[in-house]
Amino acid sequence: MVKKLSLLIALSLSGLRIWAQENPISYTVSLNNAVHHEAQISLVIPKPPQDSFVVKMARSSPGRYATHEFGKNIYDVLAYQADGKQLKIKQIEGDAFQISGHQGSVKITYTLFGNRVDGTYAGIDHRHAHLNIPASFMFVPALQERPIDLKILLPNKQWQVYTQLPVDSGVYKAKNLQYFMDSPIEISSATVKSFDVLNKEGSAQKIKIVYHGTAADSTLQDLTLKTKKIVKEAEAVFGELPQFDFKEYTFLIDVLPSNASDGMEHRNSTVIPQQAANLESSISDVLSTISHEFFHAWNVERIRPKTLEPFNFEKANMSDELWFAEGFTQYYGELLQARAGVTSIDDFLNNQGYFLNSVLNSPGANRYSPLEISRRAVFVDAGVAIDPNNNHNIYSSYYLYGNIIALALDLSLQSQFNLSLDDYMKLLWQKHGKTEIPYTIADLQQTLASLTSDDFAKTFFTNYIYGIQKPNYRALMAKAGYDLNRTKPFAAYVGNLRLNPENGKLKLLSPALFNTPIYDAGIEAGDYILSADSTNFSKTEDFEAYLKTKKPGEQITLTYERDGKVKNTLLTLTYNPTLGLNAYEKLGIELTPEIIAFREKWLKSKSTE
Ligand SMILES: [Zn+2]
């Protein structure tokens, strides 16, 4: 059923708690030059600080863990006082402006340019305006507690406004800057679907799907149905939905070929931009993002690490807990789709096998703990720089690292305590989520101890969270009847090489990975691999064919060229470490009743519907 937005707004208003409206900062957005990616934005500040004050752009955005120079895309900043007199502005930093000499309220006007639709930036064009708030709106750091009013002047009759912010007589409201910054806005002509989820006491909350892009109505219905299944599986993990602020949660989905695929969680909504021609070709990607982002409504939005509170808009918060906030969410994003029947169990296990291989063979994860890797998010989470880095040797995704920790904990809880990770998440929800008391890693350990034992929790955290040891995944996966093993057990290996033929030689494009034969032999990206022993290489296939004739443990003399000089180096071939998961039944190993029961408990639907 398609509902008109006006009706949904009318419904949402009934639950609107009116925030104190003392001296709100009033923003107005006009989109008359949307075709050239510009918006005109003004903010009126009643009773500003008397002598002088600063208005600036943010440098970070909720849910993004690196800094971004949003100030680069605003210009023509002007200031006026209430009688229309233009005020002097002193630009004190690239993105900060000082206003002084004013009397009464002050109005600031500026132009915003935005041409990237994702979860972080602003995208404005003839089709829509997709505004992430920190990328779009200047703010007054000294007045962060002021309520905010927002008016959007629509450039045509087709466009409407979609956001988690409540609206009253055409004015969108946020109780303070933190709330405003967390409330992205899509302005377009979108389609809205919705369904209700009842809580234990029988009162309903509304889940809305706002879809902008090309899609047949039947595909949108399919999306809505599958989203509901995922929502019910997520609810089953925690035992209840969060209390959304206005009894509504909104998926803001945008599917266009020019988008950047992304997903960004917020308190009562999520932004899901997808790079695709239509929903038909991208529905599985969109559902995968839906599953991940909706789990964030608990894990990170309400079960919140202390390190992200309060969110700092002037520089990125460093967090030790992203292996949990993002990694456990990654795990459940995958698991809930499988439990809901949206993906197959095979897909789930294939992905887990891929994640295990990526992390267990990542130099970064073998050198640094999940805690240390989480801290690097301030550089890697869409952080852009022009100088190269050594991330291939010192970094490993905290999404995947955290995912395989969640996997190990889930299987350990089930095999040692007849519990599951759901029990742990439920307990964390009661202690830190419902109460919204931000947690530390010590809290995570203590909660695990209260569910299991002091010893178990201490060993787990010491070894795998503070330390760099890895759980015995082969033994853990065996409990569920899956074999974790090398996919090429007899193949010789020199390292993970990306080679490109160039003038009859092979150029090494990929940086050498720590702890591989090629690294130990001193070979690095940019070198030309010429021959080994007496075999010459001019194509990648030549090199691969040569390696197939060799065995792990053999020594070879590799000839390479650097700066026009030919050199020889001796290297010892190792085993190819690539790992994969295989179901016992595919290997001809019998499934015992214990294994079948274990699998069932782990993977079956937990939803009561
Ligand atoms: Zn996430």
UniProtKB/TrEMBL annotation:
Span of domain Peptidase M61 N-terminal: 26-188
Family matches, as InterPro entries: PDZ, PDZ_sf, Peptidase_M4/M1_CTD_sf, Peptidase_M61, Peptidase_M61_catalytic, Peptidase_M61_N
Signal peptide residues on this chain, from the entry's feature table: 1-20
Domain Peptidase M61 catalytic: 286-405
Pfam families: PDZ_2, Peptidase_M61, Peptidase_M61_N
Protein name from the UniProt record: PDZ domain-containing protein
Domain of life of the source: Bacteria
Domain (PDZ) ranges: 515-569
Record keywords, A-Z: Signal
